[in-house]
Specification:
The chain folds into 2 domains: about 15-170 and about 225-315, BirA Bifunctional Protein, domain 2; about 330-415, 3-Layer(aba) Sandwich (Rossmann fold), CATH 3.40.50. A hairpin with a 5-residue loop joins β15 (about 390-395) and β16 (about 400-405). It is of the alpha+beta class and about 425 residues long. α1 runs antiparallel to α5 and α5 runs parallel beside α9 (about 230-245). The strands form 3 sheets. An 8-stranded mixed β-sheet has the order 1-5-6-11-10-9-7-8. The chain is about 35% helix and about 20% strand.
Length: about 425
């Protein structure tokens, strides 16, 4: 027997209706905000992520699935969605359609990391990207889209944290102050943070190790060293969120794990998904388009982990609908009637009735048992007498009620019943 790879998971028929519920809410909410769907390849050239995500990130350094193809080219399974969307935005000249360009995507991402609850090596993301606006109104709109999506999904125990990590003007000052602080305490840092101190000192603020968190509590925060423009941007965003009734907390520890973020960063946290409670993360990335070879384009976006959303939905007992069941099961009451019941089933399906009939050669009793097992809403038994008279007994499997109906009228009867 060949098992699935570690860190992957099958979405079985008993659960896929929940995925469909989540995806339908995502699509309908994105439409309200004017975001159009984009679908990018699962594989990209490795250089896209080296340049876009950043060589000093955990994703690039430790987590990417990278391989050489038969042409000797280095390809990578996408570890996150933003870089591919930016590549497509540039390559397909989407700016020509008029700014802002607002896109969303739903698809898999791949990271080689230790599998844990809500974090798989193959996971799925809903992401949204807004290109072309440098104003805090764009930040507020993207945050509102994320919040509205979570609300539409029925999630209530969700809190928003925001921060600012500055821009190219003030980032050197921010990093210098943080580096100076942690250099005096380098012996107390975990081994990972000792490396971060050299490569990406801001990431130390986000470390989950207890001792590093304790040390970081008194570190100079990025928000304390913003340039006037970044400070004004942040304060305007704060005012916009307050004015629109969005509850949030300014959390100076948020820096996010990707190199491309500038100015605004944010996270939505849910207590329903355990210690790693982040179900949505995002921010502004004004330099990424130019880094990947396009024209400088201010941009902002986010990513939501769908597996984590499903965990939160289950924890909150959100009603997602039910798995699909047939409207009708046609039971064949005798040998030689298979062709008739098969044709009747085809006719009913063509009229919009989800119909099942026996294709296993089961006995009448076994067919009735099967209809009950798969949850058919109604059952009809077709025998020689029913065919000759044109009348069949329609049984409501929930109430047990039976009534004789005309075979030719069954479509209208079932549609009228609301199946």
């Amino acid at each position: 027997m060949i098992n699935m790879p570690k860190g992957t998971k099958d979405a079985l028929p008993k659960d896929t209706y929940k995925w469909q519920y989540v995806e339908s809410k995502i699509r309908s909410t994105a439409r309200l905000f004017g975001f159009d769907e984009i679908r990018t390849p699962t594989i990209e050239f490795t250089e896209l992520f080296l340049r876009g995500v950043g060589e000093n990130t955990d994703i690039v350094d430790k987590e990417m699935y990278t391989f050489m193809d038969k042409g000797g080219r280095s390809l990578t399974l996408r570890p996150e969605g933003t870089a591919g969307v930016v590549r497509s935005y540039i390559e397909n000249n989407l700016a020509d359609t008029g700014l802002p360009v607002k896109l969303y995507y739903i698809g898999p991402a791949f990271r080689y990391e230790r599998p844990q609850s809500g974090r798989l090596r193959e996971h799925h993301q809903f992401g949204a990207e807004l290109f072309g606006s440098a104003t805090p109104y764009a930040d507020a709109q993207v945050i509102s889209l994320a919040k509205s999506t979570l609300t539409a999904l029925g999630l209530k125990d969700v809190s928003l944290n925001i921060n600012s990590v500055g821009c190219r003007t003030c980032r050197p000052v921010i990093e210098a102050s943080i580096k100076s602080y942690f250099c005096e305490r380098i012996d107390e840092l975990c081994e990972v943070c000792k490396e971060r101190l050299i490569k990406n000192p801001l990431r130390i603020l986000d470390c989950k190790e207890a001792r590093c968190k304790e040390i970081a509590a008194n570190a100079p925060y990025p928000i304390s060293n913003l340039c006037p423009e970044c400070s004004e941007h942040h304060q305007t965003l704060v005012k916009l969120l307050n004015d629109t009734g969005v509850e949030f907390t300014v959390d100076p520890h948020i820096v996010r794990g990707l190199d491309y973020y500038t100015r605004t960063v944010f996270e939505f946290i849910s207590s329903s998904v355990g210690a790693q409670g982040t179900i949505c993360g995002g921010g502004r990335y004004d330099n990424l388009t130019a880094t990947l070879g396009g024209k400088p384009t201010p941009s902002v976006g986010f990513g939501i982990g769908i597996e984590r959303i499903l965990m939160a939905i289950e924890s909150a007992s959100v009603y997602c609908g039910e798995s699909s069941v047939p409207d009708l099961y046609i039971v064949s009451a005798g040998a030689g009637l298979e062709s008739y019941t098969f044709s009747l089933a085809e006719k009913l399906r063509a009229s919009g009735i989800a119909t099942e009939s026996d294709i296993m050669g089961r006995s009448l009793k076994a067919q009735m048992k099967c209809a009950n097992k798969i949850g058919a809403k109604y059952v009809v038994v077709v025998g020689e007498d029913e065919i000759s008279t044109g009348l069949i007994f329609l049984k409501n499997m929930k109430t047990g009620e039976e009534k004789a109906v005309d075979i030719d009228a069954i479509v209208n009867i079932l549609l009228a019943s609301g199946v």
